[in-house]
Structures are given as C-alpha cells and as structure tokens.
Amino acid sequence: MAENPDFLSPVTSFERGKLLGQRGLVVWMTGLSGAGKTTIAVQVERKLISAGRLAYRLDGDDLRSGINAGLGFSQADRMENIRRAAWIARILHDAGIITLACFISPEEPMRALARRLVPNGAFLEVYVRASLETCIQRDPKGNYQKAIKGQLAGYTGLSPDQSYQEPTKPDLLLNTELNNSQTCAEILFAMIINKINEPAR
Which residues contact 183 (CB under 8 A, 6 or more apart)? Predict the structure, then answer.
C-alpha cells in the first residue's frame, strides 16, 4: 500500500493558520523603557483572546530572566538578545500565533534584523513613543533612578553610548503622551484585526 504523500511533507504555516482561523503575525513594539509597550501589549493580548484570536505576549524582561539570562548589555549582547527574540517570534508566527513582541530594540539595525527574520508581510513595527523626560517621571521599574544615581550602567536613553534611535517609518506610531493606554490598545487591536483579515497573497 502506497504511503499518503501528504503525511510525508512538513506541515506548513498556512495549514496551521487554517486550523486556527487566522494567520500568524509579529507585532514588534519598540520604544523607551516606560513608554508603555508592555501596558499596551497586555491589553491588546486580552482583546485578541476575547475575540477568539490566539495571541502571545513576548516580553524582553521575561527573556532576560530565562533564555537570554547570560547576556549583558554590550552592543554585541544587545544585538544577540534581539536576534534570539526575533527567532522566537518567527517560530510563533509559523505556528499561526499573533505575537506581541515588546523590546526596546533601540537601534535601527536591531529592528531591521527582526523584520528580516520574519516572512514578508507578517511583521508590523509599532513605535510606542514617549519622551525621555516622561519615561523618567513614570519610571515603572525604578531603573532610571538607579541609572541616574550611577547604580545601573549603560541604560538606554541616559548613557551617551546607548541612545535610542527613533524609527523613521514605523508601521504604526502610538504616542502615549497624547493618548492613554486604552486608546492606544484599541488602535493597535484594530490594525491587527485588519492585517490578519487581509486576503492571502
């Protein structure tokens, strides 16, 4: 009896997406610490799940305490941190999952690397903007104060060699000084739904 050729070929991302009723998508959220990336992502993930969409929030702090625990904050380590995160996001995309990836990713080459690793058309760069002054005032983790007191070296935005390069052409700009997190979450949620509902090319 001849083997069914379908069982000899790898399962495709399209097949997984068909099973889930959605296409995988990587939403790369960049911005200074304290800008509101995680706050918005938590709300969007909840809205997607409530709408029957499989989503997962991939957070930089979580990876730093696990798979990236051995990495420091040198230029090479920061790039490796993003490379690993982007590969995880790519795998989740291949599984048909909408991934909300929250990473400062302060330099354009880091964000370009993440975009290259994800299949064309399945990557959205979202710039969550707030001024450095506002982020210092918010300081949800207390890291800015530690950096100002010299207790934390190389902190993005404060250290001369660790500046934040603003994205010039993000797919979406969310200004958390002009809009609250709920409004930003609604805007991003709507964009994601529109994106995954686009006809497959």
Answer: none
H or E stretch including 46?
Answer: helix 37-50
For 60, other C-beta atoms within 10 Å of its C-beta total 20
Q: 201 pLDDT exceeds 60? A: no
Asked if residue 109 belongs to a domain, the reply is: yes
d(CA 10, CA 109): 32
Residues 113-133 pLDDT 10s: 999 999 888 999 999 999 999
What's the pTM? 0.90
Q: Tell me how far apart the alpha carbons of residues 103 and 105 are, in angstroms, rounded to a whole number.
A: 5
Active-site residue flag, 163? no
CATH number of the domain encompassing residue 77: 3.40.50.300
- Give the integer Cα–Cα distance in Å for 44 and 126: 13
Does residue 137 belong to any structural domain of this protein?
yes
Q: What is the pLDDT of residues 156-185, one digit of tens each?
A: 878 767 889 999 999 999 999 999 999 999
- Domain boundaries, position 129: 21-196
Q: Which of 65, 74, 105, 159 is catalytic?
A: 105
Asked whether 40 and 128 are in contact (CB, 8 A), the reply is yes
